[in-house]
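Sample entry (173 residues):
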Amino acid sequence: MGGSQSTPKITAQDKAILDLKLQRDKLKQYQKNIQAILDREHVIAKSHLEAGRKDRAMIALRRRKYQQSLLEKTYGQLENLEQLVSTIEFSLVEVSVLHGLKQGNEVLKEIHKELNAESVEKLLEETAEAREYQREIGEMLSNTLTLDEEDAVQEELRALQEDIVRNSLRNYA
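Predicted structure, serialized as tokens:
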């Protein structure tokens, strides 16, 4: 449709995590295979025992015991792999947070350069002067009206309010 999308970069950390997860999956598959062997050896030992071949049943149980020890070892290896993956992923999050903090700190430094104490003080003074000027103008305007003029303004205000009320009543009627 138009522009091509950029493909995300695969970092060395991403590849390491992927490799570890692949090893984890292979280890889980190996555990399933061992479990199948354990089940099979149990059936074999049981059938030999039922047939009266105790010596062969013992051999099958010994093979089963060996496979159980292998299975236990795989659980330890699997736990180590999962801990390593979690540690790496959390470390990547920490690096990302640290990078974010660094960028935030740089932005704050730039803002502080723009907002030095002198410019803030000058801005506050200008604002105070503008407010004082506005107050003076307000006082001048309010002092120029006589009492009769002020009464006339009040009367005009009342007349406008009554006119608005009458118009709104006509619109609803």
